[in-house]
Design brief:
Layout lengths: L6 E5 L4 H12 L3 E6 L2 H10 L3 E6 L5 H15 L4 E4 L14 H28 L3 E6 L2 H5 L5 H21 L4 E8 L5 H4 L3 H10 L8 H12 L10 E4 L6
Parallel strand pairs: 1-2, 1-4, 2-3, 4-5, 5-6, 6-7
Helix pairs in contact: 1-9, 3-4, 4-6
The structure holds NADP nicotinamide-adenine-dinucleotide phosphate.
Length: about 240
């Protein structure tokens, strides 16, 4: 029970990696506030998990909704120990063909959403004497990927935010780290053409796609006291793809 007594928020917890993390964190003793766009998806996660998973419809681009939900959580649980900024979307295309709406949409969710959620919990974490924030980057935020100029910009931006917040918040005992997944088997990669996935697998020393649980376990390490002297890091969880 590595998260006994901890209160965690996980965004994008209705599917994929966020769902696996909500189930794992609850099994490890945390009270998990699972945020996503659809209540039915969140209720299914809460029903599947063992332990306490509380569903909230929260869009990470909606600042009033975030503020209201954080206040509600503080009203019941009095503190927030962990924030996992996991929600993310793609709207792929080559720069030359990308419309402005696809750029704005991805920036708003993947980058501004992280800013919105970090800002909303920071005061509570300071008042509680510390916390752990985990931001979800990607291997493509480090190395780039053709057709993902918007997405890779957000995932690189998340790394900059992680390092800056580590430096800003360290004295308040708030640790901030990022996880950079490789190719993980979720709805997001279901959209990737078969031949691209085959190419990625050929470049991955471990010769498989990651599972949502592979990433959830990395989140768990960074959320727990086992990583108490780890901050400002980008943990690649990619089967060796980034080598
Ligand atoms: P996923 O299966 O598509 O799940 C993402 C969840 O986030 C969905 O439930 C989605 O809801 C929700 N969401 C979307 N927009 C949101 C918003 N504005 N506010 C709150 N929730 C929102 O994706 P995933 O593969 O688990 O990805 C999780 C994170 O890992 C993302 O940040 C992604 O960029 C990152 N990542 C994934 C991979 C990969 O290979 N899968 C690799 C590197 C990084 P809807 O379904 O209703 O839209």
């Amino acid at each position: 029970m590595r998260l006994n007594g901890k209160v965690a928020i996980i965004t994008g917890a209705g599917a994929g990696i966020g769902k696996a993390a909500a189930i794992l964190f609850a099994a490890e003793g945390a009270t998990v506030h699972a945020w996503d766009l659809k209540m039915e998806a969140l209720q299914a996660v809460a029903a599947e998990g063992k332990g306490k998973i509380v569903p909230h419809v929260v869009d990470v681009t909606n600042r009033p909704q975030i503020k209201e939900t954080v206040e509600k959580i503080l009203g019941t649980d009095k503190k927030i120990d962990i924030l996992v900024n996991n929600a993310g979307i793609t709207a792929d295309g080559l720069l030359i063909k990308m419309d402005e709406a696809a750029w704005d949409r991805v920036i708003n969710v993947n980058l501004k959403g992280v800013f919105n959620c970090c800002q909303a919990v920071m005061r509570a974490m300071i008042d509680n004497g510390g916390g752990s924030i985990i931001n979800t980057s990607s291997v493509v935020g480090v190395y780039g990927n053709p057709g993902q100029v918007n997405y890779s910009a957000t995932k690189a931006g998340v790394i900059g935010m992680t390092k800056t917040l580590c430096k800003e918040m360290g004295k308040k005992k708030i640790r901030v780290n990022a996880v950079a997944p490789g190719f993980i088997s979720t709805d997001m990669t279901a959209k990737v053409p078969e031949k691209v996935l085959t190419m990625m697998l050929e470049k991955t020393p471990l010769q498989r796609l990651g599972s949502p649980e592979d990433i959830a376990r990395a989140y768990l390490f960074l959320a727990s006291d086992e990583s108490s002297f780890v901050s400002g890091q980008v943990l690649g969880v990619d089967g060796g793809l980034s080598l």
